[in-house]
Amino acid sequence: MKNVAVIGAGTMGNGIAHTFAQSGFNVQLIDVSEDALKKGMDAISRNLDRMVSKEKITEADKADTLQHITTFTNIKEGVEYASLVVEAATERIDLKLNIFKQLDKVCREDTILATNTSSISITQIAAVTSRPDMVIGMHFMNPVPIMKLVEIIRGYNTSDDVTKRIMDLSKELGKDPVEVNDYPGFVANRILMPMLNESIETLYNGVAGVQEIDTVMKLGMAHPMGPLQLADFIGLDVCLSILNVMYDGFKNPKYAPCPLLVNMVMAGKLGVKSGEGFYDYSESRKAENVAQQFIK
């Protein structure tokens, strides 16, 4: 399994491509436009430069990693020789189902199809293919080259053989895979997202400010990053999407997104990716709390 195609050159996709390429795999990175691919490759190059500056790799290692990545804008061409395809597109069920329908048609019959979804049902995704036994979840953590955890999610029909192969493959990448079953949010987000949502509720209810909430959790609970800062880092739109999937799946009000989170996403305040969320990431107002304006 040395040829791996990655669908999506965004933050997660380019991180996954980087990780496979650095481990010696031939990677076909696929996105809809040359511009998206260029941005993705630029991000990989910058991340490799950071590793060189920290003396974790050499310049030769960087060059070798980049040589292992080829870019494509055509899915059929990109997956032609792939033994594994990892989908890392935007967290939208309609988009993912459409991609898997395409992959099922153009990939070889023995190609394993994986998704990096953080919450969407693997069983539902697998159901649109003719190979549900070969569809599995590989939920990498951000930043992918650094974070060790990979949640390996079995769909209802995922075979034991495919699960074992993906578990072994993850270890080959230097990751620590954990096998979980297919329920909304899996393990990581089923526990994390209610905590982030409750932190936003705490702010929304005026109990404390952004920095105060984050400080309590960092100093009192030994979290390396406060929950509101973490939400900004993940992307508030992603947090909202995951909470909606969990709320729809469990029909439990404890997963209902806080109105403040909903309003911020509608206003385009998505966190680091948009330059503003619970903190302001612009050069002129870095780390300044801007969330209070959304509290009515």
Task: Describe the protein in words.
Residues 287-296 have low confidence and may be disordered. This protein is 46% helix and 15% strand. α1 packs across α2. It is an alpha/beta fold and 296 residues long. The radius of gyration is 19 Å and the shape is globular. The strands form two sheets. It has an eight-stranded mixed beta sheet, sandwiched between helices. The chain has a two-stranded antiparallel sheet with strand order 9-10. The longest helix has 20 residues, at 34-53. The protein is built from twelve helices and ten strands. The protein has two domains: 3-181, Rossmann fold; 189-294, N-(1-d-carboxylethyl)-l-norvaline Dehydrogenase, domain 2. A hairpin with a 7-residue loop joins β9 (279-280) and β10 (288-289). It has helices spanning 11-22, 34-53, 59-67, 75-78, 93-106, 122-126, 160-172, 188-204, 210-221, 227-234, 236-250, 259-266, and strands spanning 3-7, 26-30, 69-72, 84-87, 112-115, 135-140, 149-154, 176-181, 279-280, 288-289. The relative contact order is 0.09.
Compute the number of strand runs. 10
- Globally, the shape reads globular
Strand order across the biggest sheet? 3-2-1-4-5-6-7-8
Structural class: alpha/beta
- End-to-end span in angstroms? 54 Å
Name the CATH homologous superfamily of the largest domain: NAD(P)-binding Rossmann-like Domain
Question: For the record, what CATH class of the largest domain applies?
Answer: Alpha Beta
Overall pLDDT level? 94
Give a short overview.
By secondary structure, the protein is α/β, with parallel strands linked by helices. It contains twelve helices and ten strands.
